[in-house]
Amino acid sequence: MRQTHSEIATVTLYKSLQGKPIRVLEKIADSLNQLNEKVDVLIELQKHSRGGIVNESLTDVLDVMTLLSLPDHLRKTAVTLCNLGQATAEEIAEQTRRARAVESGYLNQLVLMGYLKKERKGRKAYFYVEKEGPGEK
Amino acid sequence: MIGKIIAFHSYKGGTGKTLLSINLAATYARKGKNVCLLDLDFRAPSLQARFKTEGNGYWLNDYLNGVCEIQKVLTDLSHLSSGKGKFLVGLANPSTEAIREMSAKDRKWEMRALGRLLSLRNSLLNDMHLDYLILDTSPGLQYSSINAIVAADVALVVTSLDASDIKGTQRMTSELYDLFEKKTGIVVNKVLPDILSSTAGKNFSEHFHNTHNLPVLYTIPCFCDVLRAGGTCIFAEEKPEHAFAKTVEQIARKIEKL
Lengths: 137, 258
Hints:
The complex is a heterodimer of chains A (137) and B (258). By secondary structure, chain A is mainly α. Helix content of chain A is 61%, strand content 9%. Chain A has six helices and three strands, in the order ααααβααββ. In chain A, strands 1-3-2 form a three-stranded antiparallel beta sheet. In chain A, a hairpin with a 2-residue loop joins strand 2 and strand 3. Chain A is elongated. With 258 residues, chain B is α/β, with parallel strands linked by helices. Chain B has a single domain, classed as 3-Layer(aba) Sandwich (Rossmann fold), CATH 3.40.50.300. Chain B is 46% helix and 18% strand. Chain B has 14 helices and eight strands. In chain B, strand 6, helix 9 and strand 7 form a beta-alpha-beta unit.
């Protein structure tokens, strides 16, 4: 089903770009990346929602005891993000040497668990634990 | 040279973390390295008393509370060192009220404290060009200690030969340092000379490693002079020819190979 939609989108895109193959491929890669992230989120939403009801305000604290309790694969992503402060899935993947799509999935999972926050700036999605304000006690 | 963060930790108290962290810092400073030593033992602060300094009005507690930047906390004790390196210390507030306040912090505060500890790599190692940041922590599984472990490049775990200490060190190695993928070195401290001179003791580190499956970095014998000094002497600076100071020098060399 998804493939069919992608094919239709590709043909439309190809026509609109008047047959410039490299630009077409770049656009397709971009679209696939975006689609990938959306599918990751949908999968996680499905996993965590009960009866289709999702608590969007779910937040939890990512302290060291929580880091210890996470499964190894998520801990690695979370600790790397703690070190970087704010990062894209690509930046995390550079550090962990795992695939960007894998890190994107893990980061979105941590967002759904309430440990991370996600913010879009243009086409990029940035993940962070918390934006620290001055003098917080 | 890229700076390194070393955390001293132990399962039980009184194993010699503070003594070793002070002497390791002094060893680096004497060799001309720029070093900073932070007292992260907020339950039983000791660096203020050891260095007989009043600090400069700000404590590490203030930095972790987000009240001030780290530079305001650091006291320059380079005059205590014969080397050309900087010797900075950051003190924990030893007042009972501060200890009580620190022990009542919630998870959110601890999460922010971790963020502030992690940012020291930038502010101290990258911006101030320090070569070593040494963290002296509380024993056991305390928030402040685990935060320090996460922030560190190397975890040095000091243990005595006490059976419960060894058991706890084993548990922390598999359930803490390994989980955070930390380079870990075990320092067995206060080993009695007759144990070291026995047949098994001829290669005590290897024997200990084989028996307890712990990565032993160094075995330190029990020095009467060190006990006698009661923490008032920085051997690495004041008595650099003493066997204990030489031992710390060897530990410094082994850390580089971890």
